[in-house]
Amino acid sequence: MHHKARNTTRAHLRELHRRVQASQLQSLSESETRDLGIDCVELPLRPDGLLPEETDEAVYFHPWPLRRLEAHPVDMTDPTTRESARIKEKLWTRFDRKGTDQDGFLSAVLADEFLEYLREGPLGRDTLEQFSLWTEGTFEGGIIRSRYMDFSASADPDTGRGAAHAADFKFEEAWCARKGNPHVSLIVTHKVAPEERLLRTEVLALVGIMRTRLSRAALKEHTIIPINMISCMRQRQARILQAHFDGEDLVIRKSHLYDFSTRELREKNIPLFLLYMASRPIGDTRAYKKRIREV
């Protein structure tokens, strides 16, 4: 039964992948996502990092509580951390003064805060990545197959040889959950103006990762591949998407866009995003709660 559910899931995702790949649209309306079998719902980000007390939706990521993050401040006595923070602040100041931007900079800031900056507190002295028990991964080393990284409409995701990233999209960093969990967390950059609607490239990245992970023998006991994606765009804006396949639809929980263009907004929104980047993988990923729909 488990094997059948897994194969049916792969068939659903393969069909969705082909349909989205062939689309000429840059973004998808609500009706277009529904027609594709995508259930796109709001992901409210809570500044305290706590989950809603009651929800009917399956949850696969439990954010770090804000109180725990505040108990582990960045250790500016560490020379490497201090120098990296100094360089980032200098660049922020330049961008603020000129009103300019740089593709990939916001992604780099969030990645460094998570995997490079030393923090100190009750859990010891280490990075947020180490405290939250995520392992840095490589995209072509088990996160997403190279042939799924060609987002051009003319490409066939099942027969293509693979290609470089799309001109307006870049995979930045990725992490895998430990202890054999199938969960993935990643950061991507979109070289496009901020768009509240779901982007075609976001869907292709999510589906490509799910298909890749479902093909791995090490994860053969799992049917659901939860993904937590930090999606950065131009004008220093970003959002968080959490996705999984529920047996019927591709469920994408999407936050609204958050602004990082001023010091005040960064001081509020960077910690908020870190809570979700440090999320604890949770949930039953071996079986669906509902009966799987046949293809």
Any key phrases for this structure?
single chain, 295 residues, alpha+beta, 8-stranded mixed beta sheet, two-stranded antiparallel sheet, 8 helices
Task: Lay out the secondary structure.
Elements: H1 2-21, E1 27-28, H2 30-36, E2 38-42, E3 61-62, H3 66-70, H4 79-98, H5 105-115, E4 118-121, E5 124-127, H6 128-131, E6 134-137, E7 169-177, E8 184-190, E9 198-199, H7 200-214, E10 227-233, E11 237-245, E12 250-254, E13 258-259, H8 263-277, E14 280-281
Parallel strand pairs: 2-12, 8-10
Antiparallel strand pairs: 1-9, 3-14, 4-5, 6-7, 7-8, 10-11, 11-12, 11-13
% residues in beta strands: 15-25%
User: Based on helices, strands and strand pairing, what is the structural class?
Assistant: alpha+beta
* Helix and strand element order: HEHEEHHHEEHEEEEHEEEEHE
Total number of strands:
14
Sheet with most strands: 8 strands, mixed
Uncertain segments of ≥5 residues (pLDDT<50)?
A: none
Rounded mean pLDDT is 91
